[in-house]
């Protein structure tokens, strides 16, 4: 007696029955795509196993398991399909499976395309919105398997659907929370950035206004005792600070699009560290800090000088800001493969819960009201170091200061025959 189409499809879906070839003393196997189900030999056991498999498929409620004929019309239906999609078997059998798809997907032929893909690839998987009987939508994970018999003839399709609506809603909730956090961070950043950009502008404006009034009322006073030079130097300092802030913002923009260009060239890192220290001696002294330097006479390699200057400057100014009134120690050393720069302060320190976050964009480990800043210096430094193939770490205790350790690979210098030139690894 010929079996019903749906059950023949299910047998193909499960891999089909095959007689054992190891002799009468061995069990028979039900082969599937990725393994085999073993069942006892004998016709009676075979019928029992068929009944068990039929009951398994029909009883599962967490999965909609159904078969389609070669044209996509529904040939079998289980309890899971009834629970997930809302149709009774007598309502849906013989209907085309495209009725589960939103109108916009039906319009462009998605159901037929999925069957064609399953035939071509053997299996098709998708996630997307599907339609229940009551018209509501649910987020479905769908696997369609093309069912071929042992002769290679297409017998239909097996279709397994899972309802992932709760997972989808959870993902959307997390995404909304992430967007809210991003918007909050943006608004906070804009507030801080506007404050930081105004900080150098306000004294600069006051300075220029005072100079204009003096020039109008008593121009000779501007040139007396070098006053004009001092006033211009102070104004230049404010302009430089403003330019640095804008450069930081531009660097963040470049980093966001994956463009932080490096221009490595032969340079002396020891000389650079000394230059940065000299440049900030006055600012450190004003904060009550003494800069202590321990660097070799020369340490040459191939790095981007401007970016390395930026990284060292950020670490030094960070130490001055948070280590006011205490000494700051800079040390530089190297072996055959790695350069190590440490910047140590004895300032306020960083809480353990904040140490993993301080290299993130716009993150400040302390109150912006007390210390200011846009939370970009350490983020940019981290990006510069990584762009050189290196790493940066922090060790810190509250009230006892912080030590930043920067490690970058030594870059081999190009060989040159000029006097005083050497190749270093």
From TrEMBL:
Annotated ranges, domain PAC: 124-176
Primary residence: membrane
Segments forming domain PAS: 49-122
Domain Histidine kinase: 192-412
Keyword Nucleotide-binding attached: yes
Reaction(s) catalysed by this chain's protein: ATP + protein L-histidine = ADP + protein N-phospho-L-histidine
Protein name stated in the entry: histidine kinase
Source organism: Myxococcus llanfairpwllgwyngyllgogerychwyrndrobwllllantysiliogogogochensis
């Amino acid at each position: 007696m010929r079996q019903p189409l749906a059950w023949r499809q299910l047998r193909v879906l499960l891999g089909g029955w095959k007689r054992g070839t190891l002799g009468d003393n061995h069990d028979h196997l039900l082969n599937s795509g990725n393994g085999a189900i073993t069942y006892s030999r004998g016709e009676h056991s075979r019928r029992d196993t068929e009944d068990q498999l039929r009951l398994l498929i029909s009883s599962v409620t967490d999965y909609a398991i159904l078969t389609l004929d070669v044209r996509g019309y529904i040939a079998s239906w289980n309890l899971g399909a009834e629970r997930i999609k809302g149709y009774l078997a007598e309502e849906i059998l013989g209907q085309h499976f495209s009725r589960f798809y939103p109108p916009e997907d039906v319009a462009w032929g998605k159901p037929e395309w999925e069957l064609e893909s399953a035939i071509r690839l053997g299996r098709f998987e998708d996630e997307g919105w599907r339609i229940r009987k009551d018209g509501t939508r649910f987020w479905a994970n769908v696997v369609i398997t093309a069912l071929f018999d042992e002769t290679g003839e297409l017998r239909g399709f097996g279709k397994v659907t899972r309802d992932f609506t709760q997972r989808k809603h959870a993902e959307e909730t997390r995404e909304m929370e992430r967007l809210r956090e991003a918007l909050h961070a943006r608004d906070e950043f804009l507030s801080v950035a506007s404050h930081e950009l105004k900080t150098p502008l306000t004294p600069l404006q006051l300075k220029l206004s005072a100079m204009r009034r003096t020039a109008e009322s008593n121009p000779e006073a501007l040139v007396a005792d070098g006053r004009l030079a001092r006033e211009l130097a102070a104004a230049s300092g404010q302009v430089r600070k403003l330019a640095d802030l804008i450069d930081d913002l531009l660097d963040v923009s470049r980093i966001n699009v994956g463009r932080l260009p490096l221009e490595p060239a032969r340079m002396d890192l020891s000389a650079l560290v000394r230059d940065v220290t000299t440049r900030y001696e006055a600012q450190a002294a004003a904060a009550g800090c003494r800069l202590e330097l321990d660097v070799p006479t020369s340490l040459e390699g191939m790095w981007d000088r401007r970016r390395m200057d930026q990284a060292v400057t950020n670490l030094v100014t960070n130490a001055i800001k948070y280590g006011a009134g205490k000494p700051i120690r800079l040390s530089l050393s190297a072996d055959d493969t790695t350069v190590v720069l440490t910047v140590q302060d004895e300032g306020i320190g960083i809480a353990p819960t904040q140490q993993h976050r301080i290299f993130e964009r716009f993150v400040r480990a302390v109150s912006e009201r007390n210390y200011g800043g846009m939370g970009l210096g350490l983020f940019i430094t981290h990006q510069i170091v990584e762009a050189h193939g290196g790493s940066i770490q922090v060790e810190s205790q509250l009230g006892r200061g912080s030590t930043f350790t920067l490690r970058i690979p030594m870059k081999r210098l190009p060989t040159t025959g000029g006097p005083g030139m050497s190749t270093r690894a």
